[in-house]
Amino acid sequence: MKRNTYIAAAASVVLIVGGPVAAATAASADTARTVTAAAAALPTAETAEEASAAALKHYPGVVESLDKDGTVWNVDVIGKDGKGHAELEVAADGTVTELNRDTDENATEHKNLLTAKVTAEQAMKAALAAHPGQVWSVNWEDDEDGGAHYWEVEVRSTDGKTWNAHVDHATGKVTQSGSDSDDGDDTTDENN
What's the predicted TM-score (pTM) here? Predict the structure, then answer.
């Protein structure tokens, strides 16, 4: 009986002394998991697609242009109503900085962009399907005199070539493309 009492007393001492330590260790593990989960949840913007998503999360609308400048992405977004316009800078870590915002744009000026069936994101995918690599820029090209509307997408391939692709605003088809580094021949048809 005495032996059982000693064992019970020793177990109580371990629980009393070890309890706070065990609780603190469990709390530290929970904090570490929370910090790790929070860090993992932060979106990065290392690619044009990620930069576009970060910009649109910050300022909902339609991407008008996007280009890489060093380690940051410059993104112009037109508001869904066509009256708003934001110039954003997206860092590689996903941080968005608003450089300028206008709310009194002429909505008819952006009508073709807002009614295009193909978004900047879809144009990037189409260009990458035609020329694998990394998107370096995408720009909405709009001839205000009723001419062509298309996306111009610059793709840099792993072999160092830069491809400029024109992506149709209605179909998403790569209608024209060319390489900046192929001895001056800067347009080849992709109508296969």
Answer: 0.70
